[in-house]
Amino acid sequence: MQIKYIDGPRLLKAIQAGINHVITRKDYLNKINVFPVPDGDTGTNMAFTLATISEETKSNNNKQVSKVADAVADASLNGARGNSGSILAQFFVGFADGIGSFRKLTPERFSKAINTAKNYSYDALSEPKEGTILSVISDWAYSVNNIYEKHDDFVTILDFAFEQAKESLRKTPEILAILKTAGVVDAGAQGFVDFLEGINHFIKQGEKDDVDTSTIAEPVDNFEVEMTDEFRYCIECLVAGDDIDRIKLKEQLMNLGSSIVLAGSKKKAKIHIHTNDPQAVFTLGHEYGTLSGEKADDMLKQQKDAHGSHEEIAIVVDSGCDLPEDFIDEFNIHMVPVRLNFGDEHHVDKVTITSEEFWHQLQTNSIHPQTSQPTQGDFRRQYQFLTGHYNNVISIHLPASVSGTMQSATLAARDAEDLPIELIDSQNGSIGIGLIALRAAEAVKSGKAKEDILKIIHQAVQNTTIYIGLETLDYVVKGGRLSANKKKIANLLQINPILSFAMNGINSIGKTFGSKNKAEKLVKFVSSKLPDGPYRVGLAHGNALELAENAEHHFESLGAEKVISTEIGPALGVHAGPQALVIAVQSLKDNLYE
After folding, report:
1. Pairing relation of β-strands 313-318 and 333-336?
2. CA–CA dist 358, 342 (Å, integer)
3. Nearest-5° angle of CA 205, CA 208, CA 210?
4. Is the pLDDT of residue 478 over 90?
5. CATH superfamily placement of domain 8-213
6. Looking at domain 299-462, which of 3.90.1200.10, 3.30.450.40, 3.40.50.10170, 3.40.50.1110 is its CATH number?
7. Is the peptide bond before 36 cis (omega within 30 degrees of 0)?
8. What integer pLDDT is reported at residue 211 of this predicted model?
9. CA–CA separation, 540 vs 564, rounded Å?
10. pLDDT per residue over 499-544, tens digit each?
């Protein structure tokens, strides 16, 4: 069979076939990922990028190849993740621009479009490196250009070019020393070859490549990888503007980090950068247009997951969980961040804004902040990454009665077919979720079976009660959780409501009286509610360290088994306000985890 031209439907089907093949290879690509950093997520990022294309173009039935290419390019920018994913997005943008307005592709037009895509791919990087996906793209484009004049059949052209791409992939360790040391080829380059293989199979066989996923986990010898934290965060965001000067933007990004990929056009640009100053990147991007899809991955944590030793069960929380950073690190708890914004100023909770900055802005910014739950895509990316490194996930989150976080996690978990995920509604918030997550992580670390761990967690949910005391009702009114009239009545009667989480939301479970020493009165109230037997106490404060320290000493003197203190995060802080004190009490009388 010969193919003399490619129209819109054929192009889309070929791309879909390539996408399918890469997705089946995701875990293997993660295993061999050592460049630019060994964070073990190249497969996850490429799969996410390509899956977005698949999802956003599945109903496209345009016969004009240029329209299909434009749709693929736009979807790739929306979904671009990671270094290789961002390069792929720019490849598709260049491919679409190279096609122009043609309805069909001849071999000559295809060759020119591929060459444009290659040039765009190189231009996207501040410091292009050979021995990567770029080399394979370049060699593949060169081979297409060399053969199309001799053959007018796409089957022959793509088959020949695919063999050249495989040879280019084989040479990547000879070009990049880090690959040779590790004994692997470049993961991004392998992903691109896998993409071509799926396309090649479709062009030759007329059907998508149904790869048996049980055969793709090719063995990778263990290799030593030096952990690096020169730049800790992998930052991405999408900028939409009217006339984005990508050359100038790329130059400015070079002052903020490394591994810069800037994909897109004058209307839409995708930023990818490794940096230690995530907020500076978002602030710069905002100067060029409207930001969306802000993402900040902790690469140091990803490196430990990919190449360090850990248990087989991962604990995931959202950043509505307040827990000291040293506990998060010690027990290897994974956190999906809540988003917040002061008007047009967007932040990723606990990554792009410090507690000090948050409390300062809360009290001085005329715009009251808004929070938004992690999206389904945020959870999907986290679960996809964990798939290659863990056997199970237990995901513990803000209650469905007060947040859409559980819904986002539930939808994402349905897509994670290769990873069993147990979702837990914490029926709690702040340090209350922190105590529950800590019990879960301790049980995992002790090597208990999954069934026993789940029993411990469900018991912890039932045994954990949170008490929220506010210094002022101003912020809970601003956040829309209390009416101004009820605030007036409470202030008039000098009533201080004590709030807690319940099945139907946040309710008052008690009150104290008087306008002074509100925190001390809250501590006294909670002290009267302490359970019999062993218990733990969690404290979270709204920029009120002295109040928390006094409470900590008090509960230690009463015999608490453990007292953990931290700051209230923005998820609750926007409503609780400064000087608020949150106390969580967790009974340990079940002794299930001992």
Report:
1. parallel
2. 10
3. 105
4. no
5. DhaL domain (1.25.40.340)
6. 3.40.50.10170
7. yes
8. 47
9. 8
10. 998 777 788 889 999 989 999 999 999 999 999 989 999 999 999 9
What percentage of residues in the chain have a pLDDT greater than 70? 94
Question: Nearest CA to 227 among 34, 418, 74?
Answer: 34
Question: Are 568 and 430 in contact, with CB atoms under 8 Å apart?
Answer: yes
- What are the CA-CA distances from residue 375 to residues 25, 74, 380, 403 (Å)? 25, 20, 9, 12
Give the span between the Cα atoms of 266 and 252, in whole angstroms.
16
Q: Give the E-state strand segments of 408-560 in sequence order.
A: 421-425, 464-469, 495-502, 505-513, 535-541
Structure confidence at residue 348 as a pLDDT band (50, 70, 90): confident
* CATH label, 464-587, candidates 3.10.20.600, 3.30.1180.10, 3.40.718.10, 1.10.287.950: 3.30.1180.10
Residue spans in the chain of domains classed CATH 3.40.50.10170: 299-462
Give residues with Cβ within 8 angstroms of 209, minimum separation 6: 17, 20, 21, 197, 198, 201, 202
Tokens of 577: 């306000």
- Its pTM surpasses 0.90: no
pLDDT for 260: 92
- CATH 1.25.40.340 maps onto the chain at 8-213
